Amino acid sequence: MTDANLAKLAFKFKLEPNGEQRRFFSRTAGCTRFVYNHLLFKCREDFREYLEEIDSRQSNGEALNRDEAKKLSFRPLCYKGITGLNYLLPDLRKEYPFLQECPSQTLQQKAQDLMRAYHRFFDGKGGLPRFKKKALHNSFRFPQGFELDEDRKKIWLPKIGWIKYRKSRNILGKPKNVTVSLNHGDWYISVQTEFELKPLIQEINLNTAVGIDMGVIRFATLSDENYIPSLKDRLNPVYEKIEKLQRRLSRKKKDSKRYIKLRIKLSKLHKKLTDIRYDYLQKEATRLVKNHDIICVEDLKVKNMTKSAKGTIEEPGRNVKQKSGLNREILKESWSMFFKQLEYKLKLKGGIFVQIPAKNTSRACHVCGYVDKENRKTQAEFKCIHCGHTENADVNAAKNIKRAGLAQIAHQVNCNSSQQ
């Protein structure tokens, strides 16, 4: 069985631990976070010494050959794979006896997470690893040694024992690892599974292809002239409550009883926001995948689209207030999460998910193909200055996205057939 035939999914369930198990979870999360930060501090010291040695050699005019560079190379780069930092853990557990209370494999997994983070950093795929904060990072992972009993709705974890969980769906595939995490006061398990991919459909229906144009006024506009309403109506009432509580919180004495009570209420409201958004995106993605075998979207760089417009002192930005408001609205809609859900649901079905460049999709006329920024003088209306075609701007963009997506699929098919 090749990797192309394998699929991975994660199934998340809420745990129902007793008081003793909750305390054990908190201690284990604290130990793994401590190990991660301790090893990160050591790696940063090694990295600083490495850079100082390189600078001193170069300032003296010394050229480093391959053997010298290998001796001076930063410590994590010398380790093989992602398990390189694990050899430090036995001495660390002797130095700090409280680490012996938690499962050793959870500490090993945190060390490997740090190695992965450094490899991504040196490959240019991420930033320099940061220290983990208690309020944000409370999780640990078991790669083996766990047992899942779906009939009894229980899971067995090393050193913890059997724990009840709320079974909301059946688990598909073979469990590979389990992550325990704290989210707004509740503990959850995420079971990652691996299974053989068997598409639900054998033949793709081209007539069901659809293009999707993402927006702020409307969450998404389809090429068949239907649209998905924005999340504003569902989220704004919760945001209003959060703003009121935050104003009250600012007038409370920090760490007082009333301050802590308001913080707990705010935490629950933020969790409610997350649940509303996640539920909405899941349902809309499922509905689209059921009705369409091919879905075409723009390859949107959301991180670049939501950059601040403040600029610098020498070159201050323009329309900063309007841009910050637009950034907030874009981030509220969670386009990236929506695309990920469409992609994995289509993969399970056997459909095709296509992302096309976003350039000129809003300026081109889908009837004659003429491209000009004057075609869209307003946000809502599209009127081609070449052929006179008039249509809703988002619908026109969705039709352009669909046509470009189908052209990209046809090009790939032709390339594959010519190679064969």
Considering the chains and any ligands shown, give keywords for the structure:
alpha+beta; 420 residues; 11 helices; 5-stranded mixed beta sheet; 14 strands
Task: Specify the number of helices.
Answer: 11
Strand residue content? 15-25%
Mean pLDDT comes to 86
Radius of gyration: 26 Å
Form type: globular
- Helical coverage, percent range: 40-55%
Which structural class best describes the helix and strand composition? alpha+beta
Tell me about the largest β-sheet: 7 strands, antiparallel
Order of helices and strands: EHHHHHEEEEEEEEEHHEHHHEEEH
Total beta strands: 14
User: What order do the strands of the largest sheet run in, or round the barrel if closed?
Assistant: 2-6-7-1-5-4-3
Low-confidence stretches: none
Distance between the termini: 22 Å
Quick synopsis:
The protein is α+β, with helices and mostly antiparallel strands and 420 residues long. The chain contains eleven helices and 14 strands. Strand 3 and strand 4 form a beta hairpin.
Produce the secondary structure layout:
Layout: E1 6-16, H1 19-59, H2 66-72, H3 75-78, H4 89-95, H5 104-122, E2 139-142, E3 147-149, E4 154-157, E5 161-165, E6 174-183, E7 186-196, E8 210-214, E9 218-222, E10 227-229, H6 232-250, H7 257-291, E11 294-298, H8 302-305, H9 320-333, H10 335-349, E12 352-356, E13 381-383, E14 390-392, H11 393-419
Parallel strand pairs: 8-11, 11-12
Antiparallel strand pairs: 1-5, 1-7, 2-6, 3-4, 4-5, 6-7, 8-9, 9-10, 13-14
Helix pairs in contact: 1-5, 6-7, 7-10
